[in-house]
Amino acid sequence: MKTLTITPVILSGGSGTRLWPLSRQLRPKQFLPLINELTLFQNTLKRLQGIPLLEDTLVVCNEEHRFMVAEQLRELQLGHQGILLEPVGRNTAPALTLAALHLT
Q1: pTM given for the model
Q2: What is the CA radius of gyration of the chain?
Q3: Which of 2, 29, 39, 84 can pair with 19 through a Cys bridge, CB separation 3.0 to 4.6 Å?
């Protein structure tokens, strides 16, 4: 019998308009350290650590943020299944569909 595993998918789109002036289009809230020394994105990744049966994370983000995502993953020394780039931000359903298609 095959063991069931889960791949966490982090949707890290968003343009950062709701937390202005802290958050800007080029540095939205998920990439800011608002709670502690880690960013919201990094805190989310850390919360996944130690959960049994989890595969490495898959991240979906827009093209402007791909280097921030890669750097913040590197800072935590975490493996990942990839960084998928949304060509255009169109809410949650297309991003989840992209992730599901990539994982199948």
Answers
A1: 0.87
A2: 14
A3: 29
